Each structure stands twice: as C-alpha cells, then as structure tokens.
Amino acid sequence: MADDVLITAAIDARQFDVDATLAAGRVTAIVGPNGSGKSTLVGLVSGELRPDRGSVSLGLRVLSDAAAHVPTHRRPIALLAQRPLLFPHLDVVDNVAFGVRSRGAGKTEARERALRELDAVGAAPLASRRARALSGGEAQRVALARALATDPAIVLLDEPLASLDVATAGAMRALLAERLPACGATVALVTHDPLDIWTLADDLVCLEAGRLVESGPIADVLARPRTGFLADLSGVNLLEGTADPHDPAANGVLVGDDRVLGLWEGPEDAVGGQHVMATFAPSAVALFRTPPAGSPRNTWGVRVVDVDPRGATVRVNLTVANGQRLSADLSAPGAAALSLAPGDQLHAQVKATQVFLYPRH
Ligand SMILES: Nc1ncnc2c1ncn2[C@@H]1O[C@H](COP(=O)(O)OP(=O)(O)OP(=O)(O)O)[C@@H](O)[C@H]1O
Q: Is the distance from the beta carbon of residue 39 to the nearest atom of ligand 1 less than 6 Å?
C-alpha cells in the first residue's frame, strides 16, 4: 500500500516555505519557473536537504523534522535523474542488482529481481553488457530498472527525459507511462515539458518563488489555469481583471478599460470587483487592421510584440492596452495578408462563447 508524502517545510536560506502533498500511489508533476524551488522540494523528500522548520513524512513515518532526520540511504526512495549514473565497469544486471543488494537481499535473489525488472523495461537483452557500452536511451532504461527493482515507496524523477533525443525520449516516456502506475510507488516528477505532464502525471504541484501557488488533479489545474505560468503550460491565453462592479451578472470582466465577455464558470455568481481570470485559445483570436463591423462583443485594441511562424500557423504575440499579454494563432495566408510587424496597432476579436471566466480562487 502506497502512502502520501506530506511536505510542510521551510528552508530560510532558500526562501522556501511550502505545504504540499504527493498523493499515495499517484504521479505528481512538480512544475514552476527556474529557481521556484522544485529541486529543493525533491531534496527535502530525498533527505539531501533538511528543513529549518516543519517536517517531511511518508504516511505516519516522519522522515525529517526538528528532532529527526532519516538519511537518504535509509529512505525507501529511488531517484531517476537526467543522467543515468550507472557504474560504468559493472554489467547491466549487476548495476540493477546493486541497489537490491544494498537493501539487504542476497546475491541470487538480487540477481533474479534485477532480471525481472530488466525484462519489465524491455532491457533483458542488455543484461550482460557493460554499462559504459550502452547508448543514452539504453542507459536510462537500465537506470529506471535499477530504481524500480528496490520496490521503493517513493520515486523521484528529476527531468528524466531532458538529456535524450526526441525519438528516444518518446520511447522512454511511453515506458514510464507503463511502469510508474504499475510500480505502486508515490511518484514526484520534476519537468518543464507539457507532454510529460499530460502523459505521465495525475496531479500537479506548481511552485513560484519558493511558495506553492497551485495544486490538484492535472485536468482541473490546467483546464482553469490561475497563473501565467500554468496558462503557458496549457497553451491558453490568460487575462486577469475584475468583475464589472456596475454589472457583475453580465459576465463582464474589466481588464484595464477593456471589457471581456465570456462564459462564467462560477461556482457562485460573480461579485462586483472580484478578481476574475479569463482564458481563451490563441486560435480563437481574430486580428483586424480596421475595427471589425458586426458584433461589438470582445473587440480590444492590441499591439504586436512579435511574430513567430510555426509551420501552417503563425503565432502573433500581442499586448492589450493595460500591458497584459495574449497570443493569436493565424493561418499563414491570413498573417501574410495583414503584413504584421512589431509595434503595429490592431484590433483583436474573440467570441464571448470561446472565453471562460472564473474566480481567481
Ligand atoms: N545551495 C543553495 N544555497 C542557497 N540557496 C540555494 C541553493 N540552491 C538553490 N538555492 C536557491 O533556492 C531557490 C530554489 O532553487 P531550486 O534549485 O530549488 O529551484 P528549481 O525550481 O529547481 O530551479 P530550476 O528549474 O532552475 O532547476 C532559488 O532561489 C535558488 O537560488
């Protein structure tokens, strides 16, 4: 039975103060901008770091607090980092068996366990190869087998695909998607890649400047992002504003002097002055040189920041009057017809039915 990992811990020198839970038997993606505290969180769970205040526990077992600190090698954890860090002079099966033996198993038992795990990751044919003779992708597969062969209660993955090429990373991602849920451990995955989050993780913990800013099931957190970082991760535009104090029931949000109309997603009715988020897809944004005729809804003046061709579409990065960012994805011919340049003043239009409004919290 897997256990929750509870982190309620502060490290003063790093201005880190986070209260987060990694749910038992689930994969939690740890995300956030550079320097937000992801590695610090992992270091607290691995035992490499000790909190100045608070505690780290696995279920009812305290791993670190003011009175106690279980050292890394006594924690039931396995770490898979960007580099596989195998012993180059040992063969593959001995590399995998090493971890099992260090947990107290005998030689034969450790070897059998290693071979089973190598088979599970599709690396059985490599068993007698020296680790130094493996490719990067093969070595990472073996490192995964070594991590899981110890039957850890916690698996910590720190950007495990970041040093692999695209094709190898894809195969490794598929392997992780199969093995992580099957291993039964509580898993933390540090990543910058939205694909890893969508394909591997169940839950998400988002840190910024050493604080927890959002957590919960992936679909909930990314469907209704509440920070610019999470909006970028889910590929949507996010404008923040306040519910119109004169007419909160009209589903109007004021972003500076611009009015943004959309579908209100509650849970309660908007209250005038309330902090509200508006999200919509870049593909929902149309751009015009002259104010478009017809429906007056959701037309804002925008300024072009830059233009980024992406195959069949062109991403146009823009700012609205009060400086907030948004993007529009246009077809290549559509963008060419507008002949866009940075600094151009345009009109952006979005249908109200394609804008989702929800409270900040
Ligand atoms: N050894 C250290 N001593 C003091 N402060 C540190 C140390 N290592 C990191 N920090 C600080 O702690 C904060 C969190 O850093 P951390 O490395 O955990 O962030 P991160 O989210 O993992 O970043 P990245 O995405 O760049 O790896 C940062 O302000 C960083 O400067």
A: yes
Residue with tokens 């954890």: 77
- In this structure, are residues 263 and 357 in contact, taking their beta carbons and an 8 Å threshold? yes
Give residue 251's pLDDT band: very low, low, confident or very high (50, 70, 90): confident
Q: How far apart are CA 155 and CA 134, in angstroms?
A: 23
Overall residue count recorded for the chain in this entry: 361
Interval 156-214: pLDDT, tens = 999 999 988 888 999 999 999 999 999 999 999 999 999 999 999 999 999 999 999 99
Among residues 226, 234, 257, the alpha carbon closest in space to that of 244 is found at 257
Q: What is the pTM of this model?
A: 0.88
For a mutational test of ligand 1's pocket, the pick from 40, 44, 190, 233, i.e. the residue with the most ligand atoms closer than 8 A to its C-beta, is 40
* Spans of all domains in the chain: 5-223, 236-359
List CB contacts of 337: < 8 A, sequence separation 6 or more: none
Q: Indicate the CATH number for domain 5-223.
A: 3.40.50.300
Q: Domain 236-359: give its CATH code.
A: 2.40.50.100
Which value, to the nearest 10 degrees, does the dihedral of the CA atoms of residues 116, 117, 123, 124 take? -10
Tens digit of each residue's pLDDT (9 = 90 or more) over 30-73: 999 999 999 999 999 999 999 999 999 999 999 999 899 999 99
Instruction: Please determine whether the domains at 5-223 and 236-359 fall in the same fold group of CATH.
Output: no
Q: Rounded to the nearest whole angstrom, what is the distance from the C-alpha of residue 82 to the centroid of ligand 1?
A: 17
**Gap between the Cα atoms of 8 and 17, Å rounded:** 8
